[in-house]
Amino acid sequence: MVNPTRFTALLAFAIPLLVPNRAAAQIGAEAQGGKLTTWVAFGLDKELSAHWTSVTDIGFGRHSDPTGDLNPVKRQGLFVLTQDFIYQLAPHWRTAVSVGYWRRNSYLEEAPYEASQPNTYRNELRPFQKLYYDAKFGKVLFTNTLRADYRFYFTSDFGRWPTPFEFRAREMVNGKIPLDSQGRHWLILNDEILTAADDYSTATAEKTGHRWSPYKLTENRASVFYRRSFPEHKLDWDIGLMYQYWRETQQPAFNVSYNLMMDFIIK
Fold it and tell me: Would you indicate the residue range of the signal peptide (predicted)?
């Protein structure tokens, strides 16, 4: 008999192959924890041929404590490195195969919040895929992006993390609004919905009585960016704010974080 949770996850993986979308250019913040976070990223977009584009991103994040302190650079949060190879299928369609590495520091949920030993941080290797669709409504550039993540978690020394694998499906709607006729100033609006299910370790599965966590909504990310483009230097500079409504798959309650974001993209 097919495990219904596993079937739902596989169905969510199949949907991105059937529904239109396209990637947004700015490098949005990653989830970190804490009430107030900062995110700085650098990107290199390079056309390899008429159909292929390479996109390399590197990002750094810091954050405040989960409660109380709102210092957005108090604690080390994330280091992220990703590589996308994007293929132009048709004038409005693109697809991508991608891989990334995440290093996320671990902290306790209550004061003094210091990292638990020996796993002060978690390693993550993540292959993922995307399918993109573009459209233009008047002067507004619209992009719908569907993405499937395969998240493999490891301890600091690359041993097995208590939750060794997570499948996550996500959809993002993106709109770019020009603020001038030269294409130098832009307002960018994003909203992304994320759903996930965890494949438990043997010990966790025996404890819970389930091999998989419930497949559920885990996050919503709403962002606004201002972009300053410098065509003569082939450079985009983005600054923005994200409202993040999120939870871990094993938790019933949602948390709220605010992310201050900035990125630089060389094209």
Answer: 1-25
